[in-house]
Amino acid sequence: MVVALIALAPFLAALIAPSIKVFAGGFAGWVLAIVPAAIFATFLGFIPAISDFSVIRVGLNWIPAYGISFSFFVDGLSLVFGAMISGIGTFIVIYSGAYLAGHPHQGRFFSYILMFMGSMLGLVLADNVFTLFVFWELTSITSFLLIGFDHSRQAARRAAIQALIVTGGGGLALLAGLITLTLITGHNSLTGMLATAGGVQENPLYLVVLLLVVVGAFAKSAQVPLHFWLPNAMEAPTPVSAYLHSATMVKAGVYLLARMNPVLGGTDAWFWILTLFGGATLLLGGLMAVRQTDLKQMLAYTTLGSLGLLVLLIGFGTKEAILGAILYLCAHSLFKGALFMVAGTIDHGTGTRDITALGGLRENLPVTFITAILAAISMAGFPIAMGFLAKEEMYLALTQGSWPDLAFLAVLIIGNALMMVVGLLIAFKPFLGPTVPTPHSPHEGTPSLLVGSIVLAVLGVCAGLATDWINTAVLNPTGGSIYNRAVNAQIHLAFDLGNPAVWASVATWILGGLLFWKADAVRNRLRRAGEAIGWTFDAGFDALMFGLIRFADRITRLLHHGRLEWYLLLMFVCLAGIIYVPLLVVDSLPALPAWPELTFYEWGAILIAALGLLAVLTAKTRLTAIVALGIQGFSVAVIFMLFGAPDLSFTQFMVETLTVIILALVMTRLHLDDVDHRDLETAVRDGAVALAFGSGIAVLLLVVLQTDLDLTLTEFFRQTSTPIAHGRNIVNVILVDYRAIDTLGEISVVMAAGLAILALIKLRADAKGKRRGRRRGAIKGSLQ
What InterPro entries is this protein classified in (predicted)? Predict the structure, then answer.
């Protein structure tokens, strides 16, 4: 049960967060951080068991009739993600307490960030695919709340809606993929699918499943062309940006692809889709990052590039590529979380995030400066940082000599060099050089603002010294989860000139150094190129949404025109089509039944119904037609009585009587009992639709009558009516017990119709009263 509590604890904390804010005041961040800190400590306690390749699993029955459980499990992959989410989340909560100090809605923000944390933890711990989907969508909803937290700004509202649309749409594709995958494998749990991995690739629906899952993952992890929402999400407060980019939502797609590698990976389609889109995202993210001047935007686009790098490595799927992806995943979480907090501290201490308007802050923000340098070392992949280990391993995976490996190696070198430039710019440009005036006097951040960035930056550098622990506690169990077989990682800190990966690293540093030296010129060239192109994916999204709104408006005007006559006509035409089309397609039209032998009184009932029909058709006024229509209902009630259903007959008599009386009263009160004037064309049209629908109902009833009668429900009602419902009249028991909700619904409809009729009558009466009052006033005025 501990695993289930891990996923649910942040939601419980979110409930009391506003109250904690009221009572704890400025220390609310530290108090609430106890929850993620405890979760992180729990994950650390799982390491010995997970290192032995054990799996901790717990589940509760959710929808047992369909075999769906609310289940969770912890293996190497979920442990790494869970530790990142809770560990970094601890510092984000503390950071939020200081960054949003004095904000009138800080308590609400704490609730949102804790719900976001719980959603992500539930996602990475979920075993049942439907449990996973629930938390998958919760991350979209909570990120919408966080991105649009400052809802008074139009840009924040737009960014929140855009993120919700893109990730929510991807979630629907993922749901379809998971359902199809469940049907193929016969399992709705990830552990069950992993146990039978290898058979999905041979299924004819494999490509469909792959595309659906990939669309869901790409939307969440912002891969080209679904990447545009991520930079716009920087409209959120900096704590959200730091958390979202380092350890949470954008990593969800990466987690899904890593988790599905044993189930869907190992094919050419998997390889080319992930490597091509991942490589394109890496290059685009790196180039766009160098082009920016806003610190958060620079970091946002490097996150885009990093996500592309991870997807590319997962697409390769070799042991070295998987280990490189795991190392880079951890390194990126550490240095990106630290750098985002650094950017927030700079903004908090100077009033600006524009890198061209910053300089000489080293004296005023010394701790932030040192923290930025440490984080940039890991981001650039310099020894001894964890980023160096990740870069060496990913380069080792691509130095095998074949042309795809070499092509993608070049992509990695360029992409890593571009991200190195951004790290160095953020580490040095705001702090060195001449002092630049800022909106307010620069000052160092408080301990709450600094502690998270310091710890994450130091860990990112020093982690490279703990390679033995990383091999056994992180890489072996996590790599085994993704690679689906035992992995014996041998990562160690070395600088062997005989290793081609080292020369790839040197090439990265040289290229990054040159680009850093000419950063301003490169930025200007990229901006001119962007202006020359003119079009962006973000503008394409706006055009698509505008076109969708115009299309919806056209369809609404076409179908929702306000004319009841056309609504009814369209409804009955569609219903007739629904009846006839399937019967004609599968050639299931019923045979004409033999003419039954009827007694004289049965013929009499049918004759009365026929006369009633003739009276309806020849009626001169609506009121006459309504009264004649009641003859039909009475005839049906007589037939029910003749065939041994007195209860049903009595109900029919009551319904018909009330219907005729109410409609007659309404017609006379609202003066709608005039002659129904229709031209010949309208009469033929309405008559044809009525015949089509009426004959369709008759055909459908014949189909039902010609099927074998299943007495299962009959026997069930007969056996249970008295002992369970304590009623001897089976029909009444069915109405008031077995289908009580249905009967309640029918009564509610009748009540709503009655209230609507009363409202219409009252409106007509009020209108008449006002007209009489105006006439009396006019007469009185003329007399005066």
Answer: CPA3_Na-H_Antiporter_A, MrpA_C/MbhD, MrpA_C/MbhE, ND/Mrp_TM, Proton_antipo_N
For every residue of 460-495, DSSP letters joined together read HHHGGG-HHHIIIIIIHHHHHHHHSS----------
Amino acid 163 reads: A
Instruction: Evaluate whether 653 touches 647 at the Cβ level (below 8 Å).
Output: no
d(CA 322, CA 334): 19
Q: Which long-range contacts (CB under 8 A, 24 or more apart) does 762-769 make?
A: 764/669, 764/670
- Are 612 and 632 contacting, i.e. CB atoms less than 8 angstroms apart? yes
DSSP-H helix ranges across 53-128: 76-99, 106-125
Residue with tokens 């032995």: 52
Residue scoring higher pLDDT (597 or 675): 597
Closest CA to 190 of 265, 266, 118, 125: 125
Question: E strands of 400-550, at which residues?
Answer: none
- Structure token digits, residue 289: 């990052």
Q: Which residues contact 730 (CB under 8 A, 6 or more apart)?
A: 717, 718, 721
Residue from 364, 510, 335 nearest 426 by CA: 335
Task: Report residue 768's pLDDT band, with 50, 70 and 90 as the boundaries.
Answer: low
Task: Give the list of residues 6+ apart from residue 301 with CB closer than 8 angstroms, or none.
Answer: 231, 285, 286, 288, 289, 291, 292, 422
Contacts of 130 (CB under 8 A, 6+ apart): 62, 68, 178, 188
Furthest C-alpha separation in the chain:
115
Is residue 75 a contact partner of residue 69, using CB atoms and an 8 Å limit? Answer: no
- Please state, as a whole number, how many other Cβ atoms lie within 10 Å of the Cβ of residue 682: 11
Residues 6+ apart with CB under 8 A from 252: 120, 123, 124, 136, 139, 217, 220, 221
pLDDT digits (tens, 9 = 90+) for 207-263: 999 999 999 999 999 898 888 888 888 888 888 988 988 877 888 999 999 999 998
**405 touches 398 (CB < 8 A):** yes
Taking the CB of residue 336, how many other CB atoms lie within 10 A of it? 27
Task: Give which of 77, 14, 12 is closest to 46, Cα–Cα.
Answer: 77
Q: Residue with structure tokens 């980023």?
A: 387
Q: How many residues would you count in the chain?
A: 784
- The count of C-alpha atoms lying within 13 angstroms of the C-alpha of 546, restricted to the half-sphere facing its C-beta, is 6
Identify the H or E element spanning 70: strand 68-74
Q: How many Cβ atoms sit within 10 Å of the Cβ of residue 441? A: 10
Q: Looking at per-residue confidence, does 667 or 298 come out higher?
A: 298
With beta carbons less than 8 A apart as the criterion, state whether 79 and 50 touch.
Answer: yes
* Residue 238 DSSP class: H
List C-alpha distances in Å: 388 to 53, 80, 270, 370.
Answer: 27, 19, 28, 19
State the Cα torsion 243-246-252-258 to the nearest 10°. Answer: -160
The DSSP bridge partners found for residue 68 are 63
| Distance in angstroms (rounded) separating the CA atoms of residues 296 and 239 | 11
CB atoms within 10 A of CB 130: 20
In 22-67, the DSSP E strands lie at 56-63
When the pLDDT of each residue in the chain is averaged and rounded to a whole number, the result is 86
* Those residues with Cβ within 8 angstroms of residue 743's Cβ, 6 or more apart along the chain or in another chain: 735, 736
Distance (Å, whole) CA 11 – CA 115 = 5
Query: What average pLDDT does range 168-174 have in this prediction?
Result: 93
Q: Would you tell me how many other CB atoms lie within 10 Å of the CB of residue 108?
A: 16
* Side chain identity at residue 762, one-letter code: K
Can you tell me the distance from the alpha carbon of 222 to that of 216, in angstroms, rounded to the nearest whole number? 10
The one-letter amino acid code at 225 reads P
Number of H helices, E strands in the chain: 32, 2
Whether the link from the prior residue into 346 is cis, omega within 30° of 0, is: no
In percent, the amount of the chain with pLDDT more than 90 equals: 33
Q: Which residues are CB-contacts of 555 (< 8 A; sequence separation ≥ 6)?
A: none
pTM of the model: 0.79
Can you tell me whether residue 185 is helix, strand or coil? helix
pLDDT at position 674 is 62
Tokens of 470: 């990383």
Measured CA to CA, the distance from residue 317 to residue 274 in angstroms comes to: 10
